[in-house]
Input
Amino acid sequence: MARASGVMLLHYLGYFGSMILVWLVMVSSLLKGQPLVEVVLPALLLIASILFGVVGLLHVVGGGGHGGKR
Amino acid sequence: MAVNRQRLREYDLEGWVHTLFYKAAVLFSIIEALAILAYLASPSPLTSMAFRVSTIIYWFLLTPSFYELTKGFLMIYSKGTFMSHIAENVRKRLLQRYGSRARLASVALYAAIILWIIAPIVFILGWLYG
Output
């Protein structure tokens, strides 16, 4: 349970982080030519989507946990 | 498992849609990560287009989750008076005490949905006319 909690924390960090960062990446596209917009926000979204996807595939969709096979 | 999914669909269509989109988003987030990686590693019109298209699809797949998350927060904020399945007599009592929170929550949900939908519109317009 303790291990699963840590894994789920990473997964949900990616999940909620993705939601916020997708929105920020889209809205900030108005500000062209800024390094924050062109590099930093997409890089953060990359990290969030890896956390959401990889941990989600291994521990949530693949087996056990929220919405997984029981 | 398939029976459970069928039951969920019949019992709670909204929950079923959320679960379906959530699982699709988990799978798609890998594609989104690869598209971002390609865009950051070698920016070109092709990788930029892949990044933009995948981000729009990712936004679409996260939309039911955003709705459920916002609804959940507002349900908690309004002490269950907003969008919860409770007995009418209980709701009336709660509304007497938390009426202002319920009103604010009903406005906030629409405001959040509008803000959520504005993002891809800005993104697509910036892409086409920027």
About this structure: The CA atoms of residues 32 and 126 of chain B lie 20 Å apart. Residues 88-129 of chain B form the longest helix (42 residues). Chain B has one domain: 2-129.
